Amino acid sequence: MSSITFQKIWKIYNKKVLAVRDLNLVCQDHEFLALLGPSGCGKTTSLRMVAGLEGITAGEIKIGDKVVNDLRPRERDIAMVYESYGLYPHLSVYDNIAFPLRVRHIADEEIKRRVGRVSEIVDLQDILGRFPSELGDGQKQRVSIARAIVREPAVFLFDEPISHLDETLRRRMRKEIKHLQSTLGTTMIYVTHDQIEAMAMADRIVVMDQGVVQQVGTPEDLFDSPANLFCAGFIGEPPMNIVTGKLVREAERLMFQSNGLKLSVTNPAQIQILETMRNPDIVLGIRPSHVAPKVEATATSVPAEVYGFEPHGDYNIVTCKVGAEVLLAVSGSDFFPDLGQPIHLEFSSNLHFFDVNTKWNVLKGQGANHG
Amino acid sequence: MDTAIEGVVLSDAERAGLEIHKEVVSPADRVGKALTYVVLIAYSLFSILPIYWTATLAFKAESEIYTKTPKLWGFATTMDNWREVFAGPASIVGVDFVHAIRNSFFVTVPSVLLALALGMPVAYVLARYNFKAKGDVHFFYLSLYFMPPLLILIPLFVLYNKIHLYNTYLGMALVMQLITLPLVVLIMRGFFEDIPVEIEQSARVDGARGPWVFWRIILPLVVPGMMATAFLCTIFSWNNYLFSYLLTSGENQTAVVRITLYRTFTGIMWGPMSAAILLTIVPVLLLAIAIQKYIVRGLTLGAVKG
Amino acid sequence: MTTFMKRLQANVPTLLALPSIILVMMIAIYPILYAFYTSMTDQLLNQSKSNFIWFGNYVNIFTSRVFWHAVGVSVKYVALAVGIEMLLGFGLALLMNGALRGRSLFRILILLPLMLPPATGAMMWASLLDPSLGWVNYALLQIGIHAPAWLSDSGTALYSVVGIDVYHFTPFVALILLAGLQSIPRLQYEVAEVDGANAWQVFRLVTLPQLMPTIFLVLLFRLVLCINGYDVINVATKGGPGDVTTTLSFQASVTGYRNMLLGQAGAYSIFMFFVVLFISKKLFNRVTRSWI
């Protein structure tokens, strides 16, 4: 059993820098868990604590049932893949992959077999004799991954492994890594700052900011019901539209009003909570894919002006000026407005509301710190 | 153990609830660390022992020097030794040591300036131009440094006598190039190579011409390297014994050579000699500390970037 | 632009290098050629005329006891000195490579002996090792050891001189190997740790292989400069007592300046020249590739 448990983990550097605050998390056996967040959010620190490369200030980390706080990295049955590959420059690809096995005094025959098998999986058979300085970035990363696999460890720890690759390579590696993990079934913790990567590959994602877990959930959870403003703005491409405004009553209906925008709230659960709020100030979130630009006005559309335009092939992103607000909308591939053209925006009812002070989604309680 | 979280902003409840995890350090690690410091401190003491000892001798009264119980501290001091060193022609030993220091100065400074003037262009050429013999040229300057000195000095002794360069500052400055020129060429080459070619290229695109580019753009960028190289040349030049020993005589010899003159027929005048030694080595030690960042590059003639 | 100017510009590199080449010709090439020539004459120090005697000098020295004794002393001296310096220096470098407080201070303190003129350092050690006035023998006496007269006792003289050499040049080895060690990215050590290597395996499989070029570089420098070494012997023991510390270098100077046999001294020098050349060629290839 190789689940990973973080229990009340704190990490503080030099007595004053708080890197990780009260992390409580369980990564299930065989699970692909992504740690997602901007630089400095504590994701890499957390990963390194699992590896044993960083000391733990407080709390316990368990791999399976075993508390590993005091175990050296090589005693933890983990394998790590690094952002900068970490290949040994003086060893050939074969020797690089064989290194973890040689160090454990495994017989040459066995080494040959395992390296052969692994290099087939990662498609490196042709370059086993080459040296790291002769390899391209994509190849180097695959060697790094091969070296991690060859040991058949209990846990994979991947630290932003593909962030240095170009887009095409990254797309390919995303698929390959995902496929690898599901075939081998090894528990994986994967650190990245790229939400597209996390959304595409992970079973569950842990969103972190400044050392604190913001939300834990499946990609769907994160997309459909972000726990707070941070998650809302971080997940999703293009990013969610965020508008600050006020709640007003108009006749029997509850409306959101801001400088240029006026929408009615239709979700009963939301209405129930919003009506109890004393402060009428509120933050609205709506995804660009839920804002449809139209040439003709409709009964519920809002007038807007085209401010910017990005064709993306299957869809286009239209930047619109609505009163004083700037919103992003997603249109079909046949919509080609001119700059400055007046258009009409149709808003879906999929609105998110966030408390103006705490930034939390009004539908969720405070501190959703579990997993 | 609360010191681990002193500086962090936490609520009291949080702080109370935290159980700091104690770092487990194996006894082997502890011993290893302790031993490391012991060895390094011991070696450092060994390193400065002769220097310290000489410093004590320089200030020791005669009775403290010629005694069966030499002390490292707590001895009677005097300035007599220094008076002797600075006494000039009136000194007991007959050595005008201040004059010897002046000699060192007048040999070293021209050597360094000459090396910079002759060597920098070569270094620049090696850094920027590509030609077949490049490796050979590099090796050639290196081999100057590796030459058995006597191989060159004995013929040079004969030659200098013939062309009246024996016992002259000029003669010395020229020989010293055997040491200083390789230093300048090989070390400055590295510094020139450190400057991205793009800087020169963009200056040329802007219309600037060769010499201007060199003087106004490149040179300012290598000033630190130049200073370090100049200091290093100064150190090696100043410290040189053999060249002055064989190619100059009497009053014109450099300080390092003249120190041995405190060895007289009647015995060694340790006191004044130690003062003379201090006078000779202190400037160099200070220079060395000033350029210690570049010392590895200097010592390996640019082969290793420290 | 005139063709003259054009030709001038095309030859800029050559022009820039010319002054230094001329100088080197004067102070190096010419003396070496002259030394080659002299080594084949019977030139004396105090005379201006000499006769060409082909390889007479070489025959003389290769059949002389004095020459072979000097070779023996040189071999012992260089082997001991360089051997100890390499081991001691490597050890110091390894110690300074780890997490250490005060590393810069240690580096400076350890660097100092290298910055002393070897001739002067020899003098300083001579006073420290003096049997009656020096502190070393006095201190040893305090713990019950009757130490010999280091530099004047024929049993210990050579080792004492080796010791002075070690004092001066161990820092050289230590600092350069330290730089080499620190140029190995820390990431590799983390990677090796996670891969399962213990400290000794890391050293043998990761550190050492990458350090080899630097090790050969240091070895090359030390061997050559030690063979050429002269200052320390001249100041500390003058080759003595007797000829116990008479290295090749010193013997060459004795032959030339005391015995006045310039021709023969030339032969000594040429012999040393070829030895140094041989060593350089053998080691140069193994050294840092970044030389060209």
What secondary-structure arrangement, pairings included, does this model have?
The complex is a heterotrimer of chains A (371), B (306) and C (292).
Chain A (H helix, E strand, L loop, with lengths): L3 E10 L3 E11 L4 E5 L6 H9 L6 E6 L2 E2 L10 E4 L11 H11 L4 H14 L15 H13 L5 E5 L7 H18 L2 E6 L2 H7 L2 E6 L2 E6 L1 H6 L4 H6 L6 E10 L2 E5 L4 E3 L3 H8 L5 E6 L4 E4 L7 E10 L3 E8 L2 E8 L9 E6 L4 E4 L16
Parallel strand pairs in A: 3-8, 3-9, 6-7, 7-8
Antiparallel strand pairs in A: 1-2, 1-4, 4-5, 9-10, 11-12, 11-14, 12-13, 14-20, 15-19, 16-17, 16-19, 17-18
Chain B lengths: L11 H6 L9 H33 L2 H4 L14 H7 L10 H32 L5 H13 L2 H14 L6 H26 L2 H9 L4 H29 L3 H6 L7 H4 L4 E2 L2 E2 L1 H21 L4 H5 L7
Antiparallel strand pairs in B: 1-2
Chain C lengths: L2 H8 L1 H27 L17 H7 L2 H33 L5 H9 L6 H12 L5 H8 L14 H26 L3 H10 L3 H29 L3 H6 L11 H11 L3 H23 L8
Would you mind describing this structure in some detail?
The complex is a heterotrimer of chains A (371), B (306) and C (292). Chain A has 371 residues and is α+β, with helices and mostly antiparallel strands. Chain A has nine helices and 20 strands. The radius of gyration of chain A is 25 Å and the shape is elongated. Chain B has 14 helices and two strands. Chain B starts with 11 loop residues before the first helix and ends in a 7-residue tail after the last helix. The longest helix of chain C has 33 residues. The interface between B and C is large, with 88 and 89 residues.
